Write the structure tokens for this entry.
Amino acid sequence: MDQLDKQKAFEEETKRISETVSKIKHRIAVFSGKGGVGKTTVSVNLAYAFHMNGFSIGILDADITGPNVPKMLGVDGKPIVLSNKFLPFEKFGVKMISIASLIQSGQPVIWRGPMRSKVINQFLADVDWGELDYMIADLPPGTGDEILTIAQQMKPDYAVVVTTPQEVSVLDAERAINMARKLDIPFVGVVENMSGFICPHCGAVLNIFGEGGGKKLADDCGVPFLGSVPIDMDARILGDKGKPIVLEKPNCEVTNAFKSISNLIQEHYQKESQAK
Ligand SMILES: Nc1ncnc2c1ncn2[C@@H]1O[C@H](COP(=O)(O)OP(=O)(O)OP(=O)(O)O)[C@@H](O)[C@H]1O
Ligand SMILES: [Mg+2]
């Protein structure tokens, strides 16, 4: 491919990305400074909480080196290609695309930043998402290339920063909030995950990862605190089985927390549109 062809291909891809983005009303990036704090769990369960309220929704798995969304949705197989576009998977009404569905299970993705960004671009340019109320991008931990690409191409209008209550996670989450600001994502909210464990035997609350870190962070940074999600063994067990807890246990504390978080985000968008 000579320089001119490359330029043309780039322009065409940019155009396809803009077309995709123009058909998605709201775009949410879920990220954190630290790994393993529950970004994918939050992305998947928030998606179903939105869907339960009648919204159409897609999850873009932007974690290229540690893609977990298909596992947590219980999706396997390869996506179908139709008229040069991938059809996203659809599970219980939520659309999804992930690199995990395109590579052999268990194989590592050893790609530098530009390759990872290229895949994210393709997920926007070459996947037939159709019209959506919400797209959620589930990001890898940290402030690397993936969030830069998502910010530039998907143009999120909301960043959900996930932290656990413990100090090291909160410290990294502060970096994530500041990154969201630097990237001009207009709104940021904090979710505290793994906020205490209710002992199934005696009912006592054990604050395994500490207490109140997420709320304090949100207050210190002047951003809304969206809510706390407790530790529940079923959240992990059902996540591993590809059965989101919000669908499987519609009345438990974790589900109520996700519903409340999704309601706060919806209220935010409603206020936004009324103010326009
Ligand atoms: N509230 C919760 N209660 C119990 N288990 C949870 C909870 N939130 C997440 N988990 C479990 O903790 C593990 C890590 O969660 P998850 O994969 O969502 O984190 P992550 O931030 O996406 O990780 P990574 O940084 O690797 O992408 C998973 O096994 C998940 O099922
Ligand atoms: Mg994850």
